[in-house]
Amino acid sequence: MNINWFPGHMKKTRELIQKNLKLVDVVYEIIDSRIPLSSRNPEIDKLIGDKPRIVVMNKSDLSDTNINKEWINYFNKKGINTLLIDAIKNKGISELVKQTEIVIKEKKERQLDRGIKNKPIRAMIVGVPNVGKSTLINSLSRRKSAKTGDKPGVTKGKQWIKLKGNIQLLDTPGILWPKFEEQEVARNLAFTGAIKDEIMDIETLALKLVEKLIKIAPFKLEKRYDIEIKEKSALEVMEKIALKRGAILKGAEIDYTRVANIILDEFRSGIIGNITLERPS
Which residues does the UniProt record annotate as the domain CP-type G (predicted)? Predict the structure, then answer.
C-alpha cells in the first residue's frame, strides 16, 4: 500500500512555524513514544535549526517501558534533551517545566544583565498530527485551552496560551512532510492514527499491523484474542480474530472492515498491550 498525503494546511503550518520561530525561546517537539523516529518530522529539524529544543515523548503509557529507556538513551547520546510524559495523566509535566527553565537559563541570565526581569518564557509546540499536542497544552495550563480529539487535524490556526508559572506557549497545527520516502514510516504513522483513516485502505492497514505485531509482540496478540498464531499468516490471524469477535457477515463471510477497525482501535488505545513499533537499533 502506497501512502502519500500532504494537505494544503500543512504548507500553511510550515509557514506559520517559520514566521513565529523568532518570537520563541524554546521549542517543544512532541513525538509518539510508540514510533519515536517515524513521528519526528525531518522538516521540523530544518525549520527549527539551532533554536533550543526539548523532545517530548508522549503516550509513554502506551509504549513498552524497557524500549522507552532505550530511546531516552539514544536521544541523550545525541545531545537532545528528551523527556517521557503521559499528557493525559499529567505524568512528566512538572519535569518539562523544569527542563524548560534549564534550557533557557543562559538567555535569562543575559536578560538580567541587561536589566530585563520577569520576561515570560515563550515556547512553541510542534509535531505531527495526533501525537497529543493539545492534550499536553491542557496539562501544562491545567485548563481546556486547546481543542483535543482522537483524529488528526483538530488544532486550527495559531494560539498563544498562558501557562502556570511564567511560560507562554504557541500552539501550531500538526505538520506532516510533503512526501514519505520510507513507506514503513508512513505505515507507522497510519498505525498510530497520525494519518486520517478516511483516506486509508483500512483492511490492508490492519493486515500490515497484524503482520508487524506477529514479529514484535506475538504473545500479546495471542493473549488479547485468545488465539494461537504459530506458523499462521497475518491474514489467517486476522480471520481468527474476526471469528473470536463475531466480525462475520451473512453466509459466514469474514467482515474484514469490522475486524480491521477492532484491531486498529485496540492497538491505538493500548488494549492489546504496551507496544513500541520501533527500536533504536
Answer: 13-178
